[in-house]
Amino acid sequence: MINESMSGNTMWAGHWLWMVVIAIVVVAPVWRICRRTGYPGWLGLLMLVPMVNLVLLYFIAFADWPANKAGAGNE
Q: Does the keyword Membrane apply (predicted)?
C-alpha cells in the first residue's frame, strides 16, 4: 500500500518540469517549420494535442504551401 507521503512532492514538480521541457523541444521546431511554409507559427502548438498532431503533420506534408505560391510569382 502506497501512502501519500511515499510519493512526495518533488516527483510531482519534476514531472511538470519535464513536461515543459519536452513541450518546448517539440513545439519550437514545428513552429519554425510552419512559419517557413507560410502558415502561422501558432499551428506548432497543435503538436501538443494528441491525434491533432498527426493531422497537422499530414496537412503540412501534402498541402500547397503559401510560401511556394508567394515565391512562384517572384521568379
A: yes
The model's confidence at residue 15, banded by pLDDT at 50, 70 and 90, is: confident
Determine the Cα–Cα distance for residues 41 and 27; give it in Å rounded to an integer.
10
Measured distance CA(37)–CA(43) in Å, rounded:
11
Q: What SS3 state is found at 43?
A: helix
- Per the confidence metrics, is the pTM higher than 0.85? no
Distance CA 67, CA 72 (A): 9
| Cβ-contact 30, 47 below 8 angstroms | yes
